[in-house]
Every structure is written in C-alpha cells, then in structure tokens.
Amino acid sequence: MKLRPGNKAPHFEILDVNGSLQTSAGNDGSPVHLSFHRHAGCPPCNLRVHELMVAKQRFDKLGVRMLQVFESSVEHIRKDLSHGEVPFPILPDRQRKLYKQYAVNPSLGGFISSFLLRPGYSMQAMFKHGYWPKFKEVTTMMPAEFIIAPDGTIKLAHYAKDLGDYVPIDSLLKLLTGMKATESSIPVTNLRE
After folding, report:
1. Which residue from 102, 117, 125, 159 is spatially nearest to 48, judged by alpha carbons?
2. This prediction's pTM
3. Is the distance from CB of 25 to CB of 148 less than 8 angstroms?
4. How would you write 72-129 as a 3-class SS string?
5. What is the spatial order of strands in the sheet that 90-92 belongs to?
6. What does 117-179 look like in DSSP terms, one character per residue?
7. Which H or E run contains 43?
8. Is 9 left (phi over 0), alpha (psi -120 to 50) or beta?
9. Whole-number Å distance between alpha carbons of 77 and 55
C-alpha cells in the first residue's frame, strides 16, 4: 500500500556508496528529502540528480538532509552515475528493500508512456545534458519522492506516473519552507519559570 502524508516513514539504516551509515528521519532533527530513482545509468534519473545538486544550497539553508536511493550496486553507481562527486548521500539498494518499505514499484505502462506521451524530460536528459542510457540495469521502476519531518511523519509522498514526473524543486522548497515556518512559530516554554 502506498504511503501518504501523515503516515510514519518506515525506519531504515543503510550504508551509502561511501560506507557511511544513513538512517531515516528523526535522528538529527532535520527534515529529509528522500528520492527513489531507477538504476544509476537512467538518463532522467541523472538529470534529476543534477537538478538537486544545483539546488543543494537552497535545501541546506532549510536544514534538509537529502538522500538519493538507486536500485543499483555500489559498483554500478560509481561507474554509471554521471556526476562524479555528489554532495549528498547516494544509497545503493540493489535488492530493493527500501523500495518495498516505501511501496515504490515498477510500472511498464509508466515506462512506456515516458517515451510515447511525455518524452521531453528523457530527451532533455540525453540531448541537452548528455546523460546517455546504460542498458545493463534497465528496469521499469518508477521514481518517487518523500519529504519526511524531523518526527518521522511523511509530509509529501509522490509516486511518479512516468520517468519525468518529479515534484518541481520550487514546490519542494515551498513545502519545506512552510514546515520550517510552522516549526519556528511554535512557542518555546521558558525553562526559567
């Protein structure tokens, strides 16, 4: 069953591609932007990582931890992800354990419609940015994005309908800014009284 805003985010602990332990929200008081991608050689996924890298400072100003999940091995991520050093953790999940926890699934219809009905994002990834497909790990997995509050509550759950169906960066930042404003407007008890 797909997760919805208001649900508790499933807890996870996983090593990123650099061997550092990464966990779900609630551990350091930061909201989390959790993105699920296809394999590391996927052109639209590489374009989305590029977009997130460009926006990283804006996410940092809001104190957001950014985690990117790929259904690839560490070796394929290092070889196929077209960005060199990425400024946020990349989580390898070849066995799709996190995908199952977060109900992120493949869709043959979504995969096909990406090229027939809405090819623009994939074409932009390939022809404008040079992210050519690597066919060793081709799957029909659909992307998904989650915003998780520091208390572990899901604030946004977006399951893509096709390979280019991502939440616009400005919409993510607007939601996160609203969360921060709500958090800062909560009165703090004076401990000296």
Report:
1. 125
2. 0.85
3. yes
4. CCHHHHHHHCCCCCCCCCEEECCCCHHHHHCCCCECHHHHHHHHHCCCHHHHHHHHHC
5. 90-92, 65-70, 32-36, 144-148, 154-159
6. T--HHHHIIIIIT-----GGG---BPPEEEEE-TTSBEEEEEE-SSTT----HHHHHHHHHHH
7. helix 43-61
8. beta
9. 21
Report the b/e string of 121-152 with b at 16+ CB within 10 A: bbeebbeeeebebbeebeeebbbbbbbbbbeb
Task: Report residue 147 CA to chain centroid gap.
Answer: 9
Measured between alpha carbons, how far is 85 from 18 in angstroms, rounded to an integer?
11
pLDDT digits 0-9 by tens, 120-175 = 666 565 556 556 566 666 678 899 999 999 999 999 999 999 888 999 999 999 99
Q: Domain residues of the chain, as ranges?
A: 34-142+156-176
Which of 3.40.1130, 2.30.30, 3.40.30, 1.10.3470 is the CATH number of 34-142+156-176?
3.40.30
Q: Would you state the pLDDT for residue 119? A: 67
Task: Kindly state the tokens that stand for 95.
Answer: 């066995």
Q: In angstroms, rounded to a whole number, what is the distance separating the alpha carbons of residues 172 and 33?
A: 9
If 0-12 CB within 10 Å is exposed, 13-18 middle and 19+ buried, where does residue 95 land?
exposed
Among residues 158, 163, 159, the alpha carbon closest in space to that of 139 is found at 163
Phi, psi for 90 (deg, rounded to 5): -110, 125
Asked if residues 40 and 137 have their Cβ atoms less than 8 Å apart, the reply is yes
